[in-house]
Amino acid sequence: MIALGAMSGTSTDGVDVAALHMDPDNGTIQFLGFHSDDFSPALRHKLLQLQRVPFKGIDGQDPINAMLEARHELTQAYAKTALALLNTHGLVPEDVACLGAHGQTLRHRPELGYTYQLFDGALLASTLGVDVVCDFRSKDIALGGQGAPLVPAFHQAWLASRGVYERAAVLNLGGFSNLTVLEAGRHGVIGGDCGPANCLMDEWARESFNQPFDLDGEIAARGKPCAALLEALWRHPFFHANWPKSTGRDQFNSEWLKSCLQEAGAGLHADDVMATLLALSVRAVVHSMPSGLDAVYVCGGGSRNSTLMAQLRLEMAPVDCLPFENLGIPSQAVEAAAFAWLAVQRIQNKVSNCPRVTGATRGAVLGALYSSL
Questions:
Q1: What average pLDDT does this structure show over 280-290?
Q2: 303 and 309 in contact (C-beta within 8 Å)?
Q3: Whole-number pLDDT of residue 185
Q4: Which of 36, 144, 145, 223 is disulfide-compatible with 140, CB 3.0–4.6 A?
Q5: Hey, which residues does 205 pair with through a beta bridge?
Q6: Three-state DSSP class for 316?
Q7: Where are the beta strands (DSSP E) in 111-212?
Q8: Percentage of the chain with pLDDT > 90?
Q9: Tens digit of pLDDT for each residue in 38-90?
């Protein structure tokens, strides 16, 4: 069967859609293709405003109307990107068994018992004519888990299909970083969120350089990390908690960054702040990395930041730091592919969370199904 997966992450830059061919009888997984579209500037502005805490509306709009209008526009963006992928590969909606859609995370507070991903599953199913699975995280949180990360089960399945069972990890560098670690003896996986990866650097690029992000880490490369600021940032309690744990913009945002800048003292050059935020991203990953690994396969937007990758390779040596492309999927497509796999798990009523990763009391079938009929 063919399944699509669609993802818009905490970087809030656009929609990624991937297609997989899966054989339920023998468990084989084949990557078919990938398409990505950027959000329009107007939609990205709305989504970033919705993620601010507290949210007070967008440009004077009623907050609830603003959220629902953004949900409609976001879902249409998912539909447009999915249709582009189908057209590129000569497919039609009737060829697709299901589409797994992540939606846009607006709030993630598992310690309070909730997470919220903005999305309209009924609208996408009706627009595309494909059964849609969404709201993947709520069931895990209802069972006492973090609801994140959810991709480790897919990482394990994909690496196993490539003959990798142990002494390896997958590092996703999106808005936030997370790790999947394959345990010895094929017993399963451990993992969790590490901390901010791109989100704070993107925020700083917008505020200080009027750029959407630090292209290839060029700004960070010009700067020098500030020890006082790095230590102020590192005092956040998230970094010192054990897995299972997950995070998001609720904890790491521009207001928190401003408070750390004030604590570190005035007079920091903007380039040095960027270099310090990159150093924080590296430290968060290295601090979370267990010993005994041979290789770490890296995916996500941060894998295209050569300054970030050079620092990670330096700090993780002698462990090999390899692109996920070595395993047959483009780095940017991995999370979208994971939600295609998760959607198939849902329509087959198979468990797809990893309780040892999320902290849920048990394994569960994840996602809400919206029929196209």
A1: 97
A2: yes
A3: 59
A4: 145
A5: none
A6: helix
A7: 114-118, 132-134, 168-173, 176-182, 189-196
A8: 93
A9: 999 999 999 999 998 888 778 888 889 999 999 999 999 999 999 999 999 99
Q: How far apart are CA 334 and CA 284, in angstroms?
A: 21
What's the rounded Cα separation, in Å, for the pair 124 and 143?
27
Neighbours of 68 (CB within 10 A): 13
Give 171-219 pLDDT, tens digit per residue.
999 999 999 999 865 568 999 999 999 999 999 999 999 999 999 999 9
Cβ atoms of 180 and 156 closer than 8 Å? yes
Strand runs labelled E in 259-319: 295-299
Cα–Cα distance measured from residue 19 to residue 29, given in angstroms and rounded to the nearest whole number: 10
What CA–CA distance (Å, rounded) separates 4 from 115?
23
Whole-number Å distance between alpha carbons of 197 and 177: 5
Three-point CA angle 260, 261, 265, nearest 5°: 115
Going by their DSSP bridges, the two strands 96-101 and 132-134 should be labelled as parallel
For 190, the 3-state DSSP assignment is strand
Average pLDDT, stretch 153-180?
Answer: 95
Residue ranges of alpha helices (H) inside 113-198 are 121-128, 138-142, 152-161
DSSP 60: T
The structure tokens listed for 267 are 């007079």
* 75-108 core/surface letters (b: 16 or more CB in 10 A; e: else): bebbbebbbebbeeeebebeebbbbbbbbbbbbb
**Dihedral of the CA atoms 104, 107, 110, 112 (nearest 10)?**
-150
Identify any residues that bridge with 368 across adjacent strands, giving them in sequence order.
134
What residue ranges in 39-93 does DSSP mark as E strands? Answer: none
Q: Mean of the pLDDT values across residues 278-293?
A: 96
- Pair 135, 116: CB distance under 8 Å: no
Q: What is the dihedral of CA 305, 307, 308, 311, to 10 degrees?
A: 150
Supply 342's token pair.
Answer: 């998760």
CA-nearest of 134, 117, 102, 143 to 244 is: 143
CA gap 238, 280 in Å, rounded: 13
